[in-house]
Amino acid sequence: MTAPAPSELAFIRFVSVENMMKLIHQIGIEEMMTGLVGYIEEDFRRWELFDKTPRVASHSAEGVIELMPTSDGEVYGFKYVNGHPKNTREGLQTVTAFGLLARVDTGYPVLLSEMTMLTALRTAATSAMVAKHLAPKDARTMALIGNGAQSEFQAMAMRAVCGVEHLRLYDIDRAATDKVLRNLGGLGFDVTACATPEEAIEGAQIITTCTADKQYATILTDNMVGSGVHINAIGGDCPGKTELHPDILKRSDVFVEFPPQTRIEGEIQQMPEDFAVTEMWQVLSGKAPGRTSERQITLFDGVGFAIEDFSALRYLRDRLEDSGLYQNLDIIADPDDPRDLFGMLQRAKG
Ligand SMILES: NC(=O)c1ccc[n+]([C@@H]2O[C@H](COP(=O)([O-])OP(=O)(O)OC[C@H]3O[C@@H](n4cnc5c(N)ncnc54)[C@H](O)[C@@H]3O)[C@@H](O)[C@H]2O)c1
């Protein structure tokens, strides 16, 4: 007896790393960044209807493994992601991820995707979306401190969305900076490799910090930051893992994703519980102002929130249909008679 073929509902779309890379090239990185920004903005504007919770973190001495769930009432999504700063020394990625979308009405999953690539894109798209609303309008120069896996994506998104053309790079490991120089060579940026973080931020209107270190690091000190800049701080995203001296936070207007999560994980973990922050969704919905003066220091204390992953998966779902860049994965046991799961197993006996 041959086992009956799985029903149509058994299959969900699966996007492998290979297909994700093909899709990114098919769409074009910068067009995809712009598209993702649109989806993230749309979801930030309907922020209030989402289920929201700080991500569920499992910490170890070496790193963290996190689950990031949310739902808009029709679609549910979650991402699995890790953060292990010591991994690169062992030839492994600091951050890897995959994620899933499901229907809320039946609970059936509909899409499973790699999200290591997609996280780099969504993180950069979120940074660029925030900079679009907070950075000085004439910002063309960005300091990029920390030249690891996220860095080129940050550059591409900031150009696509905010018009950044000049990059000033710094990393404690010169090999990382050389990698960025190689990767961005020929892509039309004006790139300068710098010997110190002080040199990197000279003349920069946007300062991006995306370093990885499992400690309270001080990538920027207070005296380094002049008025009028926008700081995009994305590397401090775990308890005990920050990038900025607390004095910078006192002089800046700090913008965050979801305060209950950012107070645990972000730069503001160094500040008292009642330290004033503005939620980015309020800026998007016109409920709070963004940049209000030329001299103001705006600071995005980005830790990465579940809704951004949800937006990215939604974008992916919508772009998949025409691309054909997916496989069908037989992942849901769906017997004809829903109560006959055991019978389905028996009929599959070889
Ligand atoms: N906010 C978010 O949504 C989000 C998303 C993804 C990753 N992250 C975080 O961003 C950071 C970067 O991620 P990645 O995947 O690029 O990591 P990575 O390990 O690939 O790169 C980090 C780089 O930082 C450099 N570095 C470490 N300490 C430094 C210092 N003191 N000064 C200058 N450079 C220094 C390292 O040499 C390395 O090249 C990580 O901390 C990660 O957890 C945040």
Automatic annotation (TrEMBL):
Origin: domain of life: Bacteria
Q: Could you tell me which Gene3D superfamilies the record lists for this protein?
A: NAD(P)-binding Rossmann-like Domain, ornithine cyclodeaminase, domain 1
Q: Which Pfam families does its entry note?
A: OCD_Mu_crystall
**Coiled-coil segments on the chain, per record:** none
Cross-referenced PANTHER family, in alphabetical order? KETIMINE REDUCTASE MU-CRYSTALLIN (PTHR13812:SF19)
Matching NCBIfam families: PRK07589.1
Q: What is the protein name for this chain?
A: Ornithine cyclodeaminase
